[in-house]
Every structure is written in C-alpha cells, then in structure tokens.
Specification:
single chain, mainly alpha, 12 helices
Length: 267
C-alpha cells in the first residue's frame, strides 16, 4: 500500500518505521484481543438469548411459507427432547457473533495493525464497512431470493408426501445457504488483497472470464439445494456480477496499474 500524497506527486512513498514487538509481546496482544472478542460475543449471546424465539421465527419463515403454499402442516418437529434447547443455544450464539462482528473485526485489525505502516492503517474503516456490508448483502440475498425459491421447488416436488422436517436439519440447511451466500459476496474483498499483493491482475481475470463463469456455475450447482436450472442461475448471477466488480477492483489496486498512473501523472 502506498501513501496517497506520494502517488499524486509521482514520488516514491515514504513510510514510517514499523514498531517492533517481541514474540511474548505478540502472544500477550493476541491473548488480550481474544479475551475482548470472547467477552463481546458473550455479551451478544445473552442479549440475543431473550429474543431467541423471535430470531428463529424469522429463520423459519421461508419453510413456513413453502409449506403453506403447498397446503401442508406449518410445523417443524424434533426427535430429541434436548434439541430445542441446543437449537436456541446455537441461534443465540450465532446472532450474538453477528451482532458483535464489528467489534470482533476491530480487534482483529488492532492485532495486525502494529505490523502496518501509518498510511496503511487508514484502511480499517473501509475494510470493516465493506466486509460487513457485503456479508449482510449476501445473507439477505440468500434469505429473500435463493432460499425461498429452492424451498418452493423442493417442497412442491414432494407434495404428494407428508414431510417430517426436523428443526436441526432445517437449521443446518438454512445456515449453510445463508452463510454460504454471505461468504460468496466477500469475493471483492479477497480479490482486493490478492491484487494489492500482485498475485492476480485485472488482465488475468478478464482473460479467464469464460473459465470463471464455468467454475461459478459448477459451484452454484453444488451449493444450490435444489437441482432446477432456475435456482442455479439465480445463485450464479450475483457471483458473475461480483466477479466483474472484482476485475475493476483489481485494476485499481494492482501495483502495476498504480505505477502506471504515477508515471502518467509525472509526465
């Protein structure tokens, strides 16, 4: 990463010296950040525990709508008496982690920031904001579009049978789809760091665009819970758009492109 003023003037960027930390200092810093993060997640867990039933009501809405649309009983079942309690523990923990994710990400940044130059530390706010925004957008897209369509297809396909869907199986499927979409939407963040380090370039990504689309549809076919082509295309469409966006990001931050812009400004 380069200093903005140095880039504008076409001069070599000047960095402050990095602070040095010993091995034991690193361990102590890691321990402190872990303690802060665990304490924050614990607070988030207890805060969300009181809303566990409301949270799960939101989670099970897609399956309830699909069952209602097919004239089936709108109720999930469980096989073990302890299943509901374990389910609410998991839901409160995940909700607490998501609620406190800005603070946890900040602790991660604070741990790695001593190894960064001063001008590089200004990326903390864009990094946190874009990471949370993209993950939330992916999860929302999965919840509102991908998952309901897949459930409509699957429940409708087996409508001649009486479903007995357990709360644990449904929750596992729900989380795999929502978390999977959230991680997929982090593609621009991954490409940003890879391009910043010069590992990938916009030219390379554009040259292999057709292969990327093939891989995207293969991944969509594997991850999509329903086998119909419509759901697969809905799953793959944002991935293609994110890949195209990532090409632009790679062009902006790749070292060769930054050097080319500095050379052009110098002339």
């Amino acid at each position: 990463m380069f200093d903005t003023a140095a880039e504008a003037s076409g001069e070599e960027p000047k960095h402050d010296s990095m602070p040095t930390m010993g091995f034991l200092d690193h361990l102590e810093e890691l321990r402190r950040r872990l303690v802060y993060s665990i304490a924050a997640v614990a607070v988030g867990f207890f805060a969300c525990w009181g809303f566990r039933e409301r949270i799960y009501a939101i989670m099970q809405k897609p399956i309830m709508d699909a069952l209602k649309a097919n004239g089936l009983t709108e109720k999930l079942v469980y096989l073990n008496p302890i299943d509901p309690f374990n389910l609410y523990l998991k839901i409160a923990a995940l909700a607490g982690l998501f609620l406190t994710s800005p603070f946890v990400l900040y602790q991660v940044w604070m741990f790695i920031s001593p190894g960064l130059y001063r001008n590089e530390k200004r990326y903390v706010v864009p990094f946190m904001a874009s990471t949370i925004a993209l993950f939330s957008a992916g999860g929302y897209f999965g919840y509102r579009i991908v998952y309901p369509r897949a459930l409509d297809f699957l429940i409708g396909f087996g409508s001649q049978f009486q479903p007995m869907i357990t709360i644990s199986e449904y929750t596992s499927l729900f989380l795999s789809i929502i978390l999977g979409m959230g991680l997929i939407f982090e593609m621009p963040i991954l490409i940003f760091f890879l391009a910043l380090m010069g590992i990938v370039s916009a030219g390379f990504m554009w040259k292999n665009f057709r292969y990327a689309i093939l891989i995207i549809f293969i991944v969509a076919g594997i991850v999509t819970p329903s086998p119909d082509p419509g759901s697969m295309c809905i799953f793959a469409a944002p991935m293609v758009a994110l890949y195209a966006l990532s090409i632009g990001i790679a062009w902006l931050v790749h070292p060769k492109q930054r050097q080319a812009r500095r050379d052009k400004q110098a002339t």
